[in-house]
């Protein structure tokens, strides 16, 4: 198979545009008819044919200005209409089969609900169209469907008319006054429970809020509706942005490829990110619901009102909207835990992507399948790039830049450069050098080194940036890196360098080497670099273990204090991994003990500091990894840590019990701290009673799951007993059962593949449902280190067998799940060979989707053709 990549540089404005579209759907499970009427206008070359995108449907009729039209060719990817006038009405009738659509892209029917997903290029599975984000049209949508089974029929905008027919069907007409690209179109039809509310905007306009959930789940939707109101208020207060339609609708569906979708006025959500109550959802679930609700709502301005010119610009809306939802979450809960959570995503997943064959800049240059680029790089690194601008400009400057961005571009489809240039207008800092972050891929390395000259009593701190070649780019340039930094003297007091700071605690690294000097202050100065994770870089330094402890005691930046403990853990695990655990001397254990003891009344930081770095994080700073030795080093260290401070951990466990459950910041921190401690204690025999008591006494899902995770760590017999009880309680609730699936799939046991086979036969498992597939197969491939990386390659083979099946029905989900197999670069050569063997099996499949083809072929080419 050879597939041609599209290139960012080849962008050309469309020859035609569409100003208005009226769609008429007659819903039928296997033969839905779609009549589309387009107002088309030529805006380019006078002779150009009209080339419409379209696939996976039947074409029934084409007419121009009410006359049948025959001068067209149908191709694999669309329709080419020749000799068309400069302005005309185009009528196209198509037929689609929603029940057969298992890819969940375009219009599909599952569990009796009709639903669409059009971003990025799904609209072309509904009708022939200029399916690209720079064509903005006004949509009118009529839906006709069975009245009994589809009492609710929704589309974007406002309902303007409805009625009944004599044949048992009814119809409704929706109109969206805001011109929009086709990817923001949505249609939903089904039978739901509905929650309604109102919101009064800052300018006094009253809006209707409507949330649609599965029958019987109304109470589980209340939190999401409250979260929506908080998001609306926050965006008014922080960015001065108000909602623009009269009605805002959210629908929760069970079959959905990703988290949610920001369709104008009609968000469609994976029910996982809407439904939450004390009994069925963890604190983390509540957090995610609030953050995804906010994210989709914030898109109304950053994404919908101002959209992307082309898909290479995806980070324009995603990086910015992630940054906005992160700021919101941080205001709603603990800023420290939020920042740590974001950094974990960067270190565990984004750094891994940068190091892999899929490495790409936040604004990619080449794409075969756009769905493959909804990545942690575009989203999360994209948000880090926005955050750096926020750091450089300050909150007020950033707000001024945003105001200017909307003033210039409201109603347009624009580029990342347009965004930077609006930001430029609000600052004296030249952002030209900074903007390389958009075009350069890879994780920069920053090294901190000290040299002391006794004769002149001068300490020089050298900060070096290094940008290594990545799979996609061999040449690299220096970046503009804002590095937050503080300096500690031996007594814990802060000291300042002679000169060279950009601002208090901020230094700019804009060349390979930057030096800061300290004269007359002695040699004993500890630099604390990368405060608040001020740039998405990998930091190495010459700090000693005792200096990390010093940092924890005295640094001002809470993130740096947490990070110091993480670096220290990383160092300790390395000693175990190298076979010399005795290098972790008594003073270090004692220092860790004292650090924990001193933080006893601060569950927020304690709950984060007692988490040992994940296996995935440890991989990012190592090469040629012996998987099992590293995993074991991590586990043995955790065991020794728990043993050394068991008395202290028990006290912390006991003091962090709360009476009755509430989802509020103080309780969340305390519960998290308690459950993190329980996981550590699960290394020790004394944990059994704690685990069983917590499980049986729990009145909320966080504590129940905390007990199950600890049991999984503790012992298989206890684990299986508790898991059986859990299954009995939740057997009819697949969304909750996903937690159970995930725990089984991540269990460290020699018969894990047999277990996975059993899970696949479970009555609640369904290969059609992406949530189930992610819970079982995804948890295994991403997080079951011992099972996925079994020495005989059986884990890799299992995943491959599964993907070969799944790819036939849902390539998008298959392509997400292949990721761990493509990230072989950190491992020892023998293991790389086993992983590559399975990648070759995938590539040998002649009918492989282009989604998988793009990732697999890149992964195989990387490192072997250079
Ligand atoms: N914009 C959607 C993601 C669409 C993914 C298409 N494969 C959700 C979001 O980022 O808000
Ligand atoms: Zn988004």
Automatic annotation (TrEMBL):
Highest taxon listed in the record's lineage: Bacteria
GO molecular function, one term: alanyl aminopeptidase activity
Cofactors named for this entry: Zn(2+)
Keyword Hydrolase among UniProt keywords: yes
Span of domain Aminopeptidase N-like N-terminal: 101-184
Keyword terms, alphabetized: Aminopeptidase, Hydrolase, Metal-binding, Metalloprotease, Protease, Zinc
Top-level taxonomy: Bacteria, Pseudomonadati, Pseudomonadota, Gammaproteobacteria, Alteromonadales
Name of this chain's protein: Aminopeptidase N
Catalytic activity from the UniProt record: Release of an N-terminal amino acid, Xaa-|-Yaa- from a peptide, amide or arylamide. Xaa is preferably Ala, but may be most amino acids including Pro (slow action). When a terminal hydrophobic residue is followed by a prolyl residue, the two may be released as an intact Xaa-Pro dipeptide
Positions of the Peptidase M1 alanyl aminopeptidase C-terminal domain: 549-861
Uppermost EC category: hydrolase
Entries under Pfam families matching the protein: DUF3458, DUF3458_C, Peptidase_M1, Peptidase_M1_N
Family: Belongs to the peptidase M1 family.
Annotated ranges, domain Peptidase M1 alanyl aminopeptidase Ig-like fold: 442-541
E.C. code: 3.4.11.2
Keyword Cell membrane found: no
Ranges for domain Peptidase M1 membrane alanine aminopeptidase: 223-437
């Amino acid at each position: 198979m050879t597939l041609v990549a599209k290139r960012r540089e080849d962008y050309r404005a469309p020859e035609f545009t569409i100003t208005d579209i009226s769609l008429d759907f007659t819903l039928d499970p296997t033969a839905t008819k779609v009549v589309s009427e387009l107002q088309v206008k030529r805006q380019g070359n006078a002779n150009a044919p009209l080339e419409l995108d379209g696939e996976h449907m039947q074409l029934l009729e084409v007419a121009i200005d009410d006359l049948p039209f025959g001068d067209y060719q149908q191709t694999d990817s669309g329709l080419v209409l020749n000799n068309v006038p400069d302005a005309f009405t185009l009528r196209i009738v198509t037929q689609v089969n929603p029940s057969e659509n298992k890819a969940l892209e375009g219009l599909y029917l599952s569990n009796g609900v009709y639903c669409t997903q059009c971003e990025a290029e799904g609209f072309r599975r509904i009708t022939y169209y200029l399916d690209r984000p720079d064509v903005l049209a006004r949509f009118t949508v009529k839906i006709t469907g069975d009245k009994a089974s589809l009492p609710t029929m929704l589309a974007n905008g406002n309902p303007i008319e409805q009625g009944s027919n004599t044949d048992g069907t009814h119809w409704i007409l929706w109109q969206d006054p805001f011109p929009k690209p086709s990817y923001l179109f949505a249609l939903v039809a089904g039978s739901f429970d509905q929650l309604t509310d109102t919101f009064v905007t800052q300018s006094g306009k009253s809006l209707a809020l409507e949330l649609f959930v599965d029958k019987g789940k109304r109470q589980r939707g209340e939190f999401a509706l409250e979260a929506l109101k908080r998001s609306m208020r926050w965006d008014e207060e922080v960015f001065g942005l108000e909602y623009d339609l009269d009605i805002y609708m959210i629908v929760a569906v069970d079959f959905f490829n990703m988290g949610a979708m920001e369709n104008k006025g009609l968000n469609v959500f994976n029910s996982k990110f809407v439904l939450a109550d004390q009994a069925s959802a963890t604190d983390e679930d509540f957090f995610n619901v609030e953050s995804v609700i906010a994210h989709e709502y914030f898109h109304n301005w950053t994404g919908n009102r101002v959209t992307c010119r082309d898909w290479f610009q995806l980070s324009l809306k995603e990086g910015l909207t992630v940054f906005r939802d992160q700021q919101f979450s941080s205001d709603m809960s603990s800023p420290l835990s939020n920042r740590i959570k974001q950094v974990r995503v960067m270190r565990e997943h984004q750094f891994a992507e940068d190091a892999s064959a899929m490495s790409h800049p936040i604004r990619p240059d080449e794409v075969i399948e756009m769905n493959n680029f909804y990545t942690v790089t575009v989203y999360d690194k994209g948000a880090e790039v926005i955050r750096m601008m926020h750091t450089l400009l300050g909150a007020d400057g950033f707000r001024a830049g945003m105001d200017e961005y909307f003033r210039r571009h409201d109603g347009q489809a624009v580029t990342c450069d347009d965004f930077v240039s609006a930001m430029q207008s609000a600052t004296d800092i030249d952002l030209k050098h900074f903007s390389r972050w958009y075009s350069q891929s890879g994780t920069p390395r920053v090294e901190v080194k000290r040299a002391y000259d006794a004769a002149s009593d001068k300490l020089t701190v050298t900060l070096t940036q290094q940008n290594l070649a990545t799979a996609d780019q061999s040449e690299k340039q220096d970046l503009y890196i804002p590095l937050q930094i503080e300096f500690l003297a031996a007594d814990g007091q802060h000291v300042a360098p002679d000169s060279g700071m950009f601002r208090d605690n901020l230094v700019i690294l804009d060349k390979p080497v930057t030096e800061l000097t300290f004269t007359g202050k002695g040699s004993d100065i500890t630099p604390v670099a990368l405060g608040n994770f001020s740039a998405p870089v990998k930091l190495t330094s010459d700090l000693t273990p005792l200096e990390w402890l010093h940092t924890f005691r005295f640094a001002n930046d809470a993130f740096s204090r947490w990070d110091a403990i993480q670096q220290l853990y990383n160092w300790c695990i390395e000693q175990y991994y190298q076979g010399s655990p005795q290098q972790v001397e008594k003073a270090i254990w004692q220092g860790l003990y004292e650090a924990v003891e001193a933080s006893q009344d601060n569950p927020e930081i304690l709950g984060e500091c007692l988490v040992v770095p994940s296996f995935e994080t440890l991989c990012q700073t190592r090469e040629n990894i012996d998987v099992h030795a590293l995993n074991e080093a991590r586990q043995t260290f955790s065991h020794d840590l728990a043993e050394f401070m068991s008395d202290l951990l028990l006290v912390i466990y006991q003091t962090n019990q709360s009476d009755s459950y509430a989802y509020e910041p103080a309780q969340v921190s305390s519960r998290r701290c308690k459950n993190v401690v329980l996981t550590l204690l699960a290394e020790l025999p004394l944990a059994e009673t704690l685990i069983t008591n917590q499980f049986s006494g729990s009145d909320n899902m966080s504590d129940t799951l905390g007990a199950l995770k600890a049991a999984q760590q503790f012992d298989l017999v206890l684990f299986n007993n508790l898991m059986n009880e859990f299954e009995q309680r939740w057997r009819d609730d697949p969304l909750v059962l996903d937690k159970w699936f995930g725990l089984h799939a991540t269990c460290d046991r020699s018969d894990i593949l047999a277990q996975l086979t059993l899970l696949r036969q479970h009555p609640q498992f369904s290969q059609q449902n992406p949530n189930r597939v992610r819970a079982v197969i995804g948890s295994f491939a991403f997080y079951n280190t011992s099972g996925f990386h079994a020495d005989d390659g059986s884990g890799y083979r299992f995943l491959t067998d599964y993907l070969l099946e799944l790819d036939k029905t849902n390539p998008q989900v298959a392509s997400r799940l292949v990721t761990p197999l493509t990230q072989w670069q950190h491992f020892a050569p023998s293991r790389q060979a086993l992983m590559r063997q399975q990648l070759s099996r995938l590539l040998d499949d002649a009918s492989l989707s282009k989604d998988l083809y793009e990732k697999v072929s890149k992964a195989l080419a990387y490192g072997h053709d250079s």
